[in-house]
Amino acid sequence: MFRAAIVEAAARSCGSKVAGASRGGNPRTRWWTPEVKGAVKLKKETYRSWLACGTPEAADSYRQAKQSAARVVTEAKTRVWEEFGEAMEQDFQSAPKKFWQTVRRLRRGKRNPVHTVFGVGGELLTSTESIVRPRSLLVYINPYGGKRQGRRVYEQKVAPLFHRAHISADVIVTERANHARDHLKTEAELDKYDGVVCVGGDGMFSEILHGLVTRTQADSGVDQDQPDAELVPCSLHIGIIPAGSTDCICFATVGTNDPVTSALHIIVGDSQPMDVCSVHHNNSFLRYSVSLLGYGFYGDVLSDSERNRWQGPARYDLSGVKTFLSHNYYEGTVSFLPAESNKGDPRDELKLNGKPVCLVCSQQGSVLKEYNFRHGSRGWKVIHGKFLAINAANMSCACPRSPKGLSPSAHLADGNTDLILVRKCSRLDFFRHLLRHTNKDDQFDHSFVEVHRVRRFRFQPRHHELASLEDLSEGLKKSGFSPICVTQTTCNYSTTHSSWTCDGEILPHADIQVSVHRQLIRLFARGIEEEQQQQRSVFEDLGPHLALEPSLHWTVD
Ligand SMILES: Nc1ncnc2c1ncn2[C@@H]1O[C@H](COP(=O)(O)OP(=O)(O)OP(=O)(O)O)[C@@H](O)[C@H]1O
């Protein structure tokens, strides 16, 4: 049963195809002569060079080679069938046997299964050179993530698969927070590996991300403190074996939180590019983000829940309700540089058109650049207002409890992030907006919600900033709980500042600049292909680390 499950998962991950005898399955095919082989090889080579350069001459060469190969194959087949007919005529006694032998051989050839792997552009990879399967991995295990099962999950479910796939793995079980990040930044001999694997939750993934990106920039002499710096993409792939309490990044890139599925994506060398946002304050680097940057509502939920860690996982429920009832809004200015290409809009239905990967994300940089050149680039836009929430979703942020996520059609690797502005509105309207996270209705179809696909943005709070996070928490403590308005539909209360949550970490500054770096990292994954069906409560897993207990079930509006 275990074997059947693995084979089924592998077939789902890699695809499979039934090919004929002519696909090399049957070496005894008599018409496959050296002449035919040479003609078909030439056809393939000219096809590849036509794809590479796309000139009319290359197209012409391909057309000629194709015609020539077809002619040679037809001649060879005709010759072989003539020989077959002559042999049948010459020996009447063995003719029936020969006839049925030939029929059986041809039938067997047609049922010969060939497993196939798709590249990042959705093309079928046919040669072993084009399929990059890892041979050597560096694995970090957080033994304290989630239910503390990281080590067991790796040893029992993942290591045996790596062993069978002849993948060697150097395993480091972390001894403290930031152990993996610091090791990657300084000590790890990255040349020895084809990829880095993280066994843990989103916090652990963030460590690996920071370690790998920082190391790559340091090795390439890029100063990541500069907001305008062009960051160098990481050469090593990252694999995520989910073993945390929040595994949103894994869910959003693989489509499920299952260690065996993730291990298979690593083994077959699937490759999913992913954008990374860099966050700066006054020209100094703060953090990288791949999923959600949230100010206002989500920032407040996370800040409050961090102050109440002693409450355990229930703290997310309590902080969610408390923050909702507080109904705080924040005044400030959002400036943003809209996305260059209109090939994707945050309100599009995300269509994969039957391809295994997203067409927008698989476009090469040059294609987008050409498109932008023709359609022009738009300049910075500025919006001033009072906001209940400002969210930048770099991916859909889908999770089991919010199957479509905060921005259902956000792309993983298009070089943009979806900036969602929720303006001051009544508590009831905000409630209706939150409920949209759990159903399939248009998230942005409310007059007080707007969404922009952007390459960069900046937020400046109205009042000048407090010096540090400590000041911020002090300020929040002093401000206490805002009054709950029973009779009013809107609340006129506003604290000065909220704070940003950046993939589940609180940032020390509210005034931030964010730039999206297109395809800075690559995961051993291939994006979500199928819709997830489960629906649960509003806040749970909505953004990384915003898990609420399923006790809070609200119905849809
Ligand atoms: N050995 C360790 N001891 C303590 N903390 C660690 C250790 N290794 C990693 N960490 C830290 O634990 C934090 C949480 O890890 P992880 O994301 O794997 O689990 P999680 O249960 O999903 O956590 P959370 O719900 O807080 O995100 C990470 O931020 C990481 O820096």
From TrEMBL:
A Pfam family found in this protein is CERK_C
A biological process from GO: ceramide metabolic process
- GO molecular function annotations of the record: ceramide kinase activity
GO CC terms in record: membrane
Gene3D superfamilies for the chain:
2.60.200.40, Probable inorganic polyphosphate/atp-NAD kinase, domain 1
Domain of life of the source: Eukaryota
Which intervals hold domain DAGKc?
132-283
Name this polypeptide is given: DAGKc domain-containing protein
Q: What is the lineage of its organism?
A: Eukaryota, Metazoa, Chordata, Craniata, Vertebrata
